[in-house]
Write a structure and sequence with these properties.
heterodimer; A: 88 residues; mainly alpha; B: 200 residues; Rna Polymerase Sigma Factor, Chain: A; Arc Repressor Mutant, subunit A; 2 domains
């Protein structure tokens, strides 16, 4: 059976469905009998769920207006011919 | 320029000095950039600075964008780097990401998970969630926000942050534990809270 440390190290991989089936089954077995690891598993799962429901923020219209002005000013600047090094 | 153009088509047009094409890219991504910056920095003024900085950099650098990644990844990368620079200036003293405060063995953690998500998500809880993010070192915060709030994949986050997928997974796991530990402390506070259903 997996140790507590092995289970704890694998919690995120389990949540992200990034474990082989046999490892998932081993974790299930461990969590079924280890109440401490069960609490670790449940609270980490709930943490991820909570942030998936995190506040949705709208950008204020004034931000858009100021961004447009900043970009308009940039267009008026003489071109230096240099790039900002953000190419990818 | 057509609003139905793909990002790739818009980028090509913007590289050929089509200002309206760049404007359409701004329109498509400004809210996402602002949202990511705000979640990382927790401050509207800083988020707006990052928004402007990101699109200025994109405007100046669009001709050197070679399309090895998608425009989406590129703009997120500029945003994440700009936000990280601001975070590093603010986070004094710097917290090493090697500082391990995660446990290797479980302890008796209060299990607040049986409460429904909707019940836990009070305004008070949102404050605790914000504080838990603010307590994360910058490099952990980047990964956590992109992965667990923006819900990008490990591969996308790795591409944006120029990390290996293994490094993303490692940082994400440690970030989740740190956040969970903060929330566990919050939920196990002895004082009565509306968040835990005091009205019921």
């Amino acid at each position: 059976m997996m140790t507590c440390k092995e289970v704890l190290d694998s919690l995120s991989a389990y949540l992200d469905e990034d474990l082989k089936q046999e490892v998932r089954e081993e974790m299930h077995k461990h969590i079924g009998v280890c109440t401490d690891c069960r609490a670790e598993f449940d609270t980490l799962t709930m943490t991820v769920k909570l942030y998936r429901h995190y506040e949705k923020t709208e950008m204020p219209a004034s931000c858009h207006d100021r961004l447009v002005k900043v970009l308009e000013l940039e267009k008026l600047r003489p071109k230096s011919g240099k790039t900002s090094g953000t190419g990818a | 320029m057509n609003a139905a153009d793909s990002d790739e088509q818009l980028v090509r047009k913007a590289q050929a000095d089509d200002e309206r094409a760049f404007g359409e890219l701004v329109h498509r991504y400004e809210s996402k950039v602002y949202s990511l910056a705000l979640k990382m920095l927790r401050n509207p003024e800083d988020a707006e600075d990052v928004l402007q900085d990101t699109f200025l950099r994109a405007y100046r650098g669009i001709k050197s964008f070679q399309g090895h990644s998608t425009f989406s990844t590129w703009i997120y990368r500029i945003t994440a780097n700009s936000a990280l620079m601001r975070l590093r200036k603010k986070q004094l003293p710097m917290v090493s990401i090697d500082d391990a405060d995660e446990r290797e063995t479980p302890i008796n953690i209060a299990d607040w998970s049986p409460s429904p998500v909707e019940q836990l998500l009070s305004q008070e809880t949102q404050v605790a969630m914000n504080e838990a993010i603010e307590a994360l070192p910058a490099e952990f915060r980047q990964v956590f926000v992109l992965r667990d709030i923006e819900e990008l994949s490990n591969a996308e986050v790795a591409d944006i942050l120029d990390l290996s997928v293994a490094a993303v997974k490692s940082r994400l796991h440690r970030a989740r534990l740190k956040v969970r530990n903060r929330l566990a402390a919050y939920f196990s506070e002895p004082k009565p809270r509306r968040a835990m259903g005091a009205n019921s």
